[in-house]
Amino acid sequence: MQVKNAPLWEQEVPMEQLEFFTVQSPCIGVCQVNNRGYCKGCLRSREERFNWLQMTPHQQREVIRLCHDRRRRILAAARKQQLEQEAAARPRQDELPFL
Fold first, then answer.
1. Measured at the alpha carbon of residue 39, what is the angle toward residues 11 and 15, in degrees to the nearest 5?
2. Domain ranges (residues) in the chain
3. Residues forming a β-bridge with 33
C-alpha cells in the first residue's frame, strides 16, 4: 500500500528486476542522496551502490541487512520525533488550571 505524501523511505515502490543475479539489488529506482549520503530509495551508501556488481552474494546480503537496519533507525527516529511533538503540544499536568 502506497501512502500519498509519505517520505520516500516509507513508500513501497515495486520495481521489476530481471532474475540474473543470486541476490537482487535493493534499488527501487529512486536515486537521490539524503543528507547523510545514503540513497533515499534503497539506503545504500555511494560505495555500496557503485560496488554492488563486484560484491559476493554474502557481501550483498550484508549490505541489504545494513539497509534494513538504516530504514528501522530512520523510522524509529521519525516516530520518536512525532511523539515528542505530540507531547509538546499537550498541556502538562502541572500547568492545567484548577476548576
1. 50
2. 31-83
3. 39
